[in-house]
Design brief:
The structure holds 2 protein chains of 2 kinds.
Chain A: E1 4-7, E2 10-13, E3 19-25, E4 32-38, E5 45-51, E6 57-58, E7 67-73, E8 76-81, E9 90-97, E10 106-108, E11 112-116
Parallel strand pairs in A: 2-11
Antiparallel strand pairs in A: 1-3, 3-8, 4-5, 4-9, 5-6, 7-8, 9-10, 9-11
Chain B: E1 9-13, E2 18-23, E3 31-38, E4 45-50, E5 55-56, E6 61-64, E7 70-75, E8 84-92, E9 105-110
Parallel strand pairs in B: 1-9
Antiparallel strand pairs in B: 2-7, 3-4, 3-8, 5-6, 6-7, 8-9
Classes of the chains: A mainly beta, B mainly beta.
Chain lengths: 117, 111
């Protein structure tokens, strides 16, 4: 149980285009999902917290107008990178918080590798 | 910034126990110690967590010192597939916040 999927697993796009990444909790409901990004040889950095039915909360330094987050259902959150540029190339990972466990654990998706040309 | 400190890298022979230390000297009373690992180009995987008692599950054991300022993750019989970056994180039990990852320990299992 507690499986989180991401789609696509990788994407290559041209500079200036927008890219949408989906994060789904497959076998549990997640009122809260988190988005992270990881640059090569670095650790994961939290970008934003996504709550179902409300606006996302962004970490300091993350542009909310560039990284649009929608959490329309208890099993789906989407991250849209708008007007992507090469510096946005990164590994984007989501996690979903499960209320089913006694300690509200977070389960991670497999990640989406974005390359902007 | 992460509040835990871990060695940058460690080697361990296949079949032996891998012991990964973590210092969390500023941990507060309601914060748990969580361990995750990340295999190259994959999302992090939960391993184990604990508050003050030692814990064991099918993946690993967690030994927490009595003063809770440090802990050790033990992989009892390491395999090549255990090669990964291991992250030690201290966080509150409610889990409402995102995780703050440090640099972790790159564990390399040698054949």
């Amino acid at each position: 149980g507690a499986v989180v999927s991401q789609h696509p697993s990788w994407v290559i796009c041209k500079s200036g285009t927008s890219v949408k990444i989906e994060c789904r909790s497959l076998d549990f409901q997640a009122t809260t999902m988190f988005w992270y990004r990881q640059f090569p040889k670095q650790s994961l950095m939290l970008m934003a917290t996504s709550n179902e039915g409300s606006k996302a909360t962004y970490e300091q330094g993350v542009e909310k107008d560039k990284f649009l987050i929608n959490h329309a259902s208890l099993t789906l959150s989407t991250l849209t990178v708008t007007s992507a540029h090469p510096e946005d190339s990164s590994f984007y990972i989501c996690s979903a918080r499960s209320l089913a466990t006694s300690y509200n654990e977070q389960f991670f998706g497999p990640g989406t590798r974005l390359t902007v040309l | 910034d992460a509040k835990t400190t871990q060695p940058t890298s460690m080697d361990c022979a296949e079949g032996r126990a891998a012991n990964l230390p973590c210092n969390h000297s500023t941990i507060s009373g309601n914060e748990y110690v969580y361990w995750y690992r990340q295999i190259h180009s994959q999302g992090p995987q939960y391993i184990i967590h604990g508050l003050k008692n030692n814990e064991t599950n099918e993946m690993a054991s967690l030994i927490i010192t009595e003063d809770r300022k440090s802990s050790t993750l033990i992989l009892p019989h390491a395999t090549l597939r255990d090669t990964a970056v291991y992250y030690c994180i201290d966080r509150s039990g409610g889990g409402a916040d995102g995780l703050t990852f440090g640099k972790g320990t790159h564990l390399i299992i040698q054949p």
